[in-house]
Amino acid sequence: MPSTKSAARGFQDRAVLWSIGEICAIDIVAGACDALVAGLDTSALRILAACTRAEADYDVPDLLPLALDELDLVFYPVGSLAGREAAARMLAVQMLAGELTPRELALRIHQRFGHGLPLVERLAKLDDEYDILEYGDRTSKQVDAEIKAEALRLAQHRRAPAEPTDASA
After folding, report:
1. Is residue 167 part of a domain?
2. pLDDT < 50 regions, the chain
3. Contacts within 8 Å (CB) and 24+ apart, 106-115
């Protein structure tokens, strides 16, 4: 059974992914169940965990901020700049943990954010590099190494602001 600290981190990560549309509401409900099993317990978390598939899409937007607040975790509004940056950092941590390959990280960043998120612009450009490898003098190992360096940079600055900004413009 995971520790309550790792359960809280996992629940926070799911909330971040939900805020950028990477996962659906029922995944948040599953995360709430996992958090309860791991020993986290608040009233909003219990209500969230009790949601059915049919209720999830309607109830998660209202219950998730409450559950995160009760756990002293950060809620990132859907589409917020802070949420997009937190998601990018979280994906970088996943790559460093071996859950994604460097190419998968660059592709997911590029697909999700394009070239419109300055924090991860280098990763989007590196994803483009894979498409032109056969025409240049670089190898996929060199591109992989640069992606790993970028992921490490992102992971070292992984933080949650006290008040996330909603600069989704």
Report:
1. no
2. 160-169
3. 106/130, 106/143, 106/147, 112/20, 112/22, 112/87, 113/84, 113/88
Q: Indicate whether 103 and 128 sit together in one domain.
A: yes
* Same domain, yes or no: 11 and 47: yes
For residue 88, count other CB atoms closer than 10 A to its CB: 23
Amino acid at 15: A
Helical segments of the chain, H only: 4-19, 25-37, 43-49, 53-70, 81-96, 102-113, 121-131, 140-156
The structural domain count of the chain equals 2
Are 11 and 42 contacting, i.e. CB atoms less than 8 angstroms apart? no
Report the candidate in 136, 15, 144, 127 with the shortest Cα–Cα distance to residue 69. Answer: 15
**44 in any annotated domain:** yes
Q: Which domain holds residue 13?
A: 4-70
Model pLDDT, residue 160: 44
Name which of 96, 70, 100, 94 is nearest 10 in CA terms.
94
- Structure confidence at residue 169 (pLDDT): 37
* Residue 165 confidence (pLDDT): 40
Whether residue 116 sits in one domain with residue 59: no
